[in-house]
Amino acid sequence: xxxxxxxxxxxxxxxxxxxxxxxxxxxxxxxxxxxxxxxxxxxxxxxxxxxxxxxxxxxxxxxxxxxxxxxxxxxxxxxxxxxxxxxxxxxxxxxxxxxxxxxxxxxxxxxxxxxxxxxxxxxxxxxxxxxxxxxxxxxxxxxxxxxxxxxxxxxxxxxxxxxxxxxxxxxxxxxxxxxxxxxxxxxxxxxxxxxxxxxxxxxxxxxxxxxxxxxxxxxxxxxxxxxxxxxxxxxxxxxxxxxxxxxxxxxxxxxxxxxxxxxxxxxxxxxxxxxxxxxxxxxxxxxxxxxxxxxxxxxxxxxxxxxxxxxxxxxxxxxxxxxxxxxxxxxxxxxxxxxxxxxxxxxxxxxxxxxxxxxxxxxxxxxxxxx
Length: 371
Known about the structure:
- There is one protein chain.
- The protein folds into 2 domains: 7-37 and 200-367, no CATH class; 120-197, no CATH class.
- The two termini are 37 Å apart.
- The protein has a two-stranded antiparallel ribbon.
- A hairpin with a 4-residue loop joins strand 1 and strand 2.
- It has helices spanning 7-17, 23-32, 39-46, 52-63, 69-80, 89-98, 103-113, 123-134, 138-146, 167-174, 180-189, 199-213, 233-241, 256-262, 268-275, 283-293, 311-328, 339-348, 356-367; strands at 218-220, 225-227.
- By secondary structure, the chain is mostly helical.
- The chain has 19 helices and 2 strands.
- The chain is globular, with a radius of gyration of 23 Å.
- The model is unreliable at 157-163 (pLDDT under 50).
């Protein structure tokens, strides 16, 4: 296997890759035995000093003078007691600066609480990443941001479909900059290239969505010809993407795992908003599209079709390919100790007798038996 895993992650992997793990057993494992990776323990592995809480208290008190010390302390206690996690990206940057974390560590924490790591095409996050790199603190980073040239209204809609500058290009321009003068000049050069949405994820989304919306032609006996039918967004959702997941927002009676899996599950409205460039492509949707299409978007030769590959080799290759996609899109790689990722990996471990989407749907049916 090409993926390096910790002991706990490997235990989770062994369970999902075991041929004896049926869909029912998978649902039970998710509900009661999977050791979910948690925010605060992850943070303590990045910063092992004894003054972690003191640093965070000082940093948030400086960064948010309008909040009382009691309110800040309560938030920090909730994080350490695993009751909540930071809810906005700015808080993660404050943590990154307070603990002298690297860009990659801060980006990972952002991806931990949201769909994406540092968004290098978003000017504020780009400036934060530079300030992390050169060792500034949060307040110094804010001062630096205030010195930057005014930014035109950020674009939500890609120019000419797919011709906007991608995040990777921005990263390449800025990743090695170590001084303010060079950063500001490059910043000026890219003012029209900044944007809000993640375009690479949209690229992957639209390719997969088009495959589902325009399935292979079917033979029409009435006309003795092949007919191409374009599916509606609602039909794509119903036929391919629901997978027995309950609809609606009610979650009060759900377990933690049920809430994790149902959260941000796509629906026809969210698909429409993504297609209209009003909403970002979620990590959950991107992975779901891979499962439903099995990573196949055309008829080109693929080594995964070869019979000499073992199930273990196929799983390893799918895992590797998905991680490449996630990295390209600025998302965290698959984590066997993340509930949804575990389900994705379990679904990838399939053979000719059952499709990936069927395998995922069976587990969801056991997890939500009354729906």
